[in-house]
Amino acid sequence: MPGTELFGEEEKKEVMDVLETGVLFRYNHDAQRQGHWKAKAFEAEVAAFTGAKHALAVSSGSTAVSTMLAACGVGYGDHVIVPPFTFVATIEAVLLAGALPVFAEIDETLCLSAAGIRAAITPRTKAVLLVHMCGAAADLDGILAVCKEKDVMLIEDTAQALGATYRGRHLGLFGKMGSFSFDFFKIATCGEGGVVITDDEPLIRTAEYLSDHGHDHVGNNRGMEQHPILGTNYRIGEINAAIGLAQSRKLPLMVAKQRAHKAAIQARLSKVPGLSFRKQCDDAGDSATFFHLLLPTADAALALHKDLAAQGIGTMYWFNNMYHYIKQWDHLKDLRMPYRLVAHELGLPQDLKSLKLPQSDAVMARLVSFNIRVTWTEAELDAFIGKLEAAVTKAMAGVVA
Ligand SMILES: *Cc1c(COP(=O)(O)O)cnc(C)c1O
Asked: Exposed (0-12), middle (13-18) or buried (19+): which is 336, by Cβ within 10 Å?
């Protein structure tokens, strides 16, 4: 998590600008704010970094997903294809929109596969909510072809993929809209915040209205603004935006460092016979926030995870130990909510308690991942790779041929 690793004076300076004027609100108060528009500057920074024509900062990655779904017209009873490997926020946003999630298979890209999406399409499928999991691209060629053929919208939950590209184009710009999270655990953080990007002007306007009770933000008198639609309050505050601004400026450095560290790890581990890695659709475009190993068997993966833990090296064995796979989502399977959702009324298209995703399970059971740090010194990285190499070799030796 480079954002937290590289937190410092730059963030403090941006926050102090806001504290000195006391204008914590992102709109209006033009005279008092002494030229400080942190949310606007944060949006401009993310737009420039990603190459998006438009960016809208909101209060979180979760509200960013909700904003995209709403702006794209996803609502009552619409089927939305989602991955079983993601942060549960993706699925919650679909349910809160009044839509119905439909789970499809992932493959060794760790993202939805084109074949998985094709098999999950129903006559009521409105959108594919694609998650570019752990900072690298899904098979966009294949997925865009299926979406086009079936006349289904592509919307990208790029919460984890800031800094990642596919064939030189930033993720989040392949579908109608893309969204980023700046929570404490993402590549860059602003405490809590999110950003929606798109090249589509009407969509970003709708998103803007939705995020602020329908205000059209024309003029400098909030009381006299027009309200083309209803909305809600998903606004970001100026303090969070100030931190996001400082962090966004560090993204090129973060991504460059992560990629260099990933290359060093890859070079050494590629020599271990029989070991595989996450399938990359565009290896050079990986933001390299994570490194992913695919062991030949589930037993070998678990053995590696445990061996490294015993040496004080934390890795993620998502299949059992983490909150990011459907296997762990009992509250979702029971649709546990304090109020009645559209999903309760209409019923989900799939029975989540008996749903089988054998291809996804087969990948997840063999997957061991770890964070790539930006602040590793060369010596630290070398020592880390040495331990990793030994543990991987040992785990591979235990695999019964
Ligand atoms: C983190 C995350 C979110 C939610 O972002 P928050 O800022 O924590 O609300 C949504 N989708 C995915 C894939 C995420 O990883």
From this structure: exposed
Boundary residue ending a domain (250, 280, 309): 250
Q: How many angstroms separate the alpha carbon of residue 185 from the centre of ligand 1?
A: 9
Residues 123-165: tens digit of each pLDDT: 999 999 999 999 999 999 999 999 999 999 999 999 999 999 9
- Residues 279 and 373 grouped into a single domain: yes
166 and 140, same structural domain?
yes
CA of 89 to the centre of ligand 1 (A): 6
Residue at a domain's end among 218, 250, 282: 250
Q: At 211, which CATH number?
A: 3.40.640.10
CA of 137 to the centre of ligand 1 (A): 16
Long-range contacts of 230-234 (CB under 8 A, 24+ apart): 233/59, 234/58, 234/59, 234/60, 234/63, 234/64, 234/66, 234/67, 234/210
| Distance between CA atoms of residues 109 and 269, nearest Å | 18
